[in-house]
Design goal:
This protein has 36 helices and 18 strands. With 756 residues, it is of the alpha/beta class. The strands form four sheets. It has a six-stranded parallel sheet with strand order 1-10-7-4-2-3, with helices on both faces. The chain has a four-stranded mixed sheet with strand order 8-5-6-9, with helices on both faces. A four-stranded parallel sheet has the order 12-11-13-14, with helices on both faces. The chain is elongated and about 95 Å long. It starts with 20 loop residues before the first helix and ends with a helix. Bound molecules: iron/sulfur cluster (2 copies). The site of one iron/sulfur cluster has 15 residues, from α14.
Length: 756
Amino acid sequence: MAAPVNPIDIQPRQVANKSDKKALLAAIRMTLGVQSAAIRRNTQTFNRNRYTAVARIADYDALKDRARKTKENAIANLPELLRQLEASVRANGGHFFLAKTAADANQYIRDVLVKHDVKLVVKGKSITSEETRLNHSLEAVGIKVAESDLAEFILQVADEQPSHIIAPALHYSRERITALFKRKFQTNLPLDTGEELTRFAREILRQQFIAADAGISGANLIAADSGSLMLVESEGNIRMTTTLPPLHVAIAGIEKVVPSRADFQSFIELLPASATGQPLTSYVSILRPPLPAPSFAAPGKGTKPREFHLVLIDNGRSRMREDSVLHEALYCIRCSACLNVCANFETVGGHAFGGETYSGGIGGSWEAGTGKLMNARFSELCTGCSRCVPQCPVRIDIPWLNQNLRQRMNHEDGTSLTKSLFGSLTGSAPQDKSAPLPKQFFANYHEVGKWGTRFASLANGSSHMPLARKFMQNALGVDSRRELPAFPPKTWEQLFREEPRVEKAATIEPGIAMLTDTFTNYGSPERGMAAVRVLRAIGVDVELTPSIPDGRAAMSQGMIDTAREQARAMATMLRPYLDSGRKIAVVEPSVLAMLRFDCKHLLDDEATIAALASNSFEALQLVWDMATEVGIDLSAAFPAAKSRFGTRLFYHAHCQQRTCSAASQTIDVLRAAGFDVVTSSVECCGMAGSFGYKRDFYELSMAVGADLFAQVRDAEQDGGPRILVASGISCHEQLMGGMGRTVLHPAEVLLSTLRK
Ligand code: SF4
Ligand code: SF4
């Protein structure tokens, strides 16, 4: 057995560059082993606090719209704003430098500090300075840099890279910090509580502030009209960094510039709520440096006149601005909401789900934009679950950015004969034939399903053979510990055709068209039929559409051209149903997200995009809406007491079902029918479509699932077992795999009440 890892000996800088897959997998393993518990506890606390904080903002959506508009306009007018800002800074008596590259910025700052004979500089938290590797550059010429943010101080002591954009030492538990300080400072002082640790660090930092010759800060926003900086923090160290020493250098990316101080307003509200879940942080400073007040005079040092330098860096941002996809990342205000809500990030943090500087779902775009494309390889950890999208205060479609990065990386990986052949057999678009085989396999699962169901017993039988498992794992990347859903003898389409005609006339208008998605058709047709029967039972006329790929699977593999072709075909197929006034119902929630949100990226016709988005519903959502509208008593229509499964349920809603606001209705229906329902509160089950099937990510997927399994066990402590119910096929597979038990779709549960 391998020797246990001493957490203090870990040097994550060694795994910072994960442009190759091996390094990424090593980083995942390392963080799962050591950091996961602290990361999970801390991100989940931020996350819970954020939900509470944003719920208290009366005009949250309007505020987000305003913030988005401000950033859109600012990035669109950036060259003009930069000219205006330069004039403002100079008029205030400051210096302005626009650095094309990270090296240019470092050189400029170094020159300024050397000119002022600076020996010690105190620094506030600045991710931009991490991007430029400023500390190394200054230390190389003998300038000592003292990180003044407590978390940055811890990391400086440990010589580690940040694992989170606002809480850089989030991966540290209190016990690890105690061990680190004791070892590095050789102290016997009691350092067992948060207060003792903070007091210890503060004593050291106070001396640094007093002795510092210069202060370096970042900036959350900069107003072009006045040269004002907005600085948001919780420790007060930035305020001291910018006001005590006589020389202040602020370093920031050009995307931080907004037209005026009035534009700060929406961000002052949104940033703390989205970041730490506070209505306001402890310190919000709006400065127009150089400040008129005299600088602090340390004993033995006279007061010097104040000097201010604003160093803005481009370092790829202008290129991002021109990029039709990546320009959206420039709107990011680095609040970290998308990190804290992300189940994979919550489990491994930024040392695995992050690059050299930036981390989380948005981090890939920043790594690719400011560095090399392949530095974004960690964005493979984005499952496309879309949980982060409604949490982003500037409405960035983070999964879409990552799917595009994936497509670019697929191209970078190059084409081989095998890939092209496989792509041709499965019908990938020409541009996507270079995608790795596992991606082509999952993107074209409809082809696999078509042949698998034709020869179901042969395919199911051979899929258990060791040789077949080995092939699946090595060539197609399917982990041998996972079972792909067995191919049914009859598809959903076939079962529907064989269903006896409904004698009872439909009483609810309009009728619906049930979208025959690939995964239900070839993997779980009984779930689809249950949904059809439940809708018919309340008097809805149901038609089943032909089964064609909808583009969702291809999109999640970064095969966007294939997804586009498939989405266009699906939209054409659905048009007559929409024209005849039917609503579209789906069983698989990821397909609902496709119709509601993703088609806007893949289709050109605005009217079709709008029609699909506003007329698509999850099947049980329609049961609730229609039953409520016409006054159907669900306890009489589906009496829970008659269910052969019993009345106690544990229900897990799919990520995208929640994003589409289509989860609560299922719970309402089940409760109205008389079921006793306990619901899961985890962000994600960990399976997330094809993600959990992949050999590379199996362990991570199961680690994410651990919270869900624990919630099931908790729910069963009083009163015994509950029937496991899930709406998504992948959630279903994860619960089956993790708990070793049968899992039902909510429609199957309702159907069970109708059986004699
Ligand atoms: S889409 Fe899901 S997996 Fe991807 S970054 Fe957002 S929350 Fe994380
Ligand atoms: S992408 Fe949005 S949610 Fe994520 S850090 Fe940036 S602003 Fe915050």
